[in-house]
Write a structure and sequence with these properties.
Number of domains: 2
Mean pLDDT: 82
Number of helices: 14
Order of helices and strands: HHHHHHHHHHHHHH
Low-confidence stretches: 192-196
Number of strands: 0
Largest sheet: none
Radius of gyration: 21 Å
Oligomer: single chain
Distance between the termini: 28 Å
Structural class: mainly alpha
Strand content: under 5%
CATH topology of the largest domain: Growth Hormone, Chain: A
Length: 396
């Protein structure tokens, strides 16, 4: 860990990521409250905010991955922050002119920008962080995500309620500019010149050829898809677990969510401590088996204290799965293809998550809560068996 703290690239990327995350949560909560107030809580208007956040993932994720491999990642991330800055100006101008619908356009722009920034950050980590420390970087990243998952909504709510709409949006300008300034101090990116100056379309297809040639990488996509599908099945039915299995008022679902958040935070910390001591694909396999077993126990439990404890352990398991899987993938993909592989994973994960969530209710109506949870458990266990087939570059 000491080695990582002295790595200036890691520190600058972490500071930038914290500023971005704070800005994203303040923006999301501010726009949510603004749209709720303006439309009287119109469900269609509120749901559109979610649509404009998810739709660009399917459309621009692979494009962003290809361009991240073609462009200089440092410049790409800085321009991304500047575009986010401009999108906030667009919100302010639209609201002042009475065109409140500009919030949807701006939300889409911000989501599009993230599809370019995320793979670029992965490329910089691959270039400037020693491979033995990549797993620790992923653990720190997971811990940070968990912190904002717990505290992000509260941060956005406090800022909006205390300072109002214009001040909340104005604070985003400062956050995104500070993030861009922080990124400007990164070293110049190691950028390979294309020998044949190949076109975008050829590099797009080259990414799929690389995936086809290295068939073990396809297992990463399958594992990400299965994990997301299992999570998607479980998320919408949590409230029925509280009502039907625990015999508690549905309001108590917040305690399960809180337990999961604390577990994910603890899992990120645990991953930072143990991730380097578990070699190869073992971490992915162990954590997926753990997640599958805990899912089975959770639906069997009728005691609130046991369910809460299991949910806490599930949060740890999910954090470990995401950390081990992300860090192992970075070591399994050649640097020239990091962007494209990231671009392929995002729509696969998000699509599987949405599929799981969309069929969860129908599946519950057709079967039972027990069947839904057991199905999700088996999905996690199947993902664990697929994990036996993934390899790092050194192992190939």
């Amino acid at each position: 860990m000491k080695q990582l703290i002295t790595n200036s690239v890691f520190i600058k990327l972490t500071i930038s990521s914290i500023l971005q995350s704070a800005g994203v949560w303040i923006r999301n909560m501010t726009l949510l409250f603004f749209v709720m107030d303006l439309t009287g809580g119109n469900p269609l208007a509120v749901s559109m905010l979610t649509v404009v956040q998810y739709a660009p993932i399917f459309i621009f994720s692979i494009v962003g991955g290809v361009l991240a491999d073609r462009w200089r990642p440092k410049a790409t991330m800085i321009y991304g922050e500047l575009f986010s800055f401009l999108s906030i100006l667009l919100i302010m101008a639209g609201i002042r002119m009475g065109y409140w619908q500009a919030v949807f356009v701006t939300g889409a722009i911000s989501s599009i920008v993230s599809q370019f920034s995320q793979p670029s950050a992965a490329i910089i980590i691959k270039q400037h962080v020693p491979e033995k420390l990549i797993s620790t970087v992923m653990a720190v990243s997971q811990t940070q995500k968990s912190l904002f998952l717990i505290g992000g909504p509260a941060l956005g709510t406090v800022v909006f309620n205390r300072f109002g709409l214009e001040a909340s949006i104005g604070s985003l300008l400062i956050l995104f500019l500070l993030s861009a300034l922080c990124l400007s101090f990164l070293p110049k990116s190691v950028h390979e010149e294309r020998r044949d100056r190949s076109s975008f379309s050829s590099e797009f297809t080259e990414g799929f050829r690389y995936l086809q040639k290295n068939r073990h990488l396809g297992f990463f996509l399958i594992i990400f898809a299965l994990v997301a599908l299992g999570e998607g099945l479980l998320k919408p039915v949590e409230i029925f677990l509280v009502r039907d299995r625990l015999q508690l008022p549905v309001e108590n679902v917040q305690w399960l969510t809180g337990s999961m958040g604390l577990g994910m935070l603890s899992g990120g910390i645990c991953a930072g401590i143990f991730v380097r001591s578990i070699s190869g694909n073992k971490g992915v396999i162990y954590s997926l088996f753990l997640l599958g077993g805990l899912t089975m126990i959770e639906v069997w439990s009728i005691w609130p204290w046991l369910t809460g404890f299991v949910r806490f352990l599930m949060g740890i398991a999910i954090a470990l799965v995401q950390t081990f899987l992300s860090s192992f993938m970075l070591t399994a993909v050649e640097g020239a293809y990091i962007g494209r592989m990231n671009g392929m994973i995002s729509p696969v994960f998000t699509g599987s998550l949405l599929i799981g969530s969309s069929i969860s209710g129908m599946f519950l109506n057709a079967t039972s809560l027990f069947v839904v949870y057991v199905t999700a458990s088996f999905i996690f266990l199947i993902a664990a068996f697929f994990s036996f087939n993934i390899q790092s570059i050194k192992e190939r």
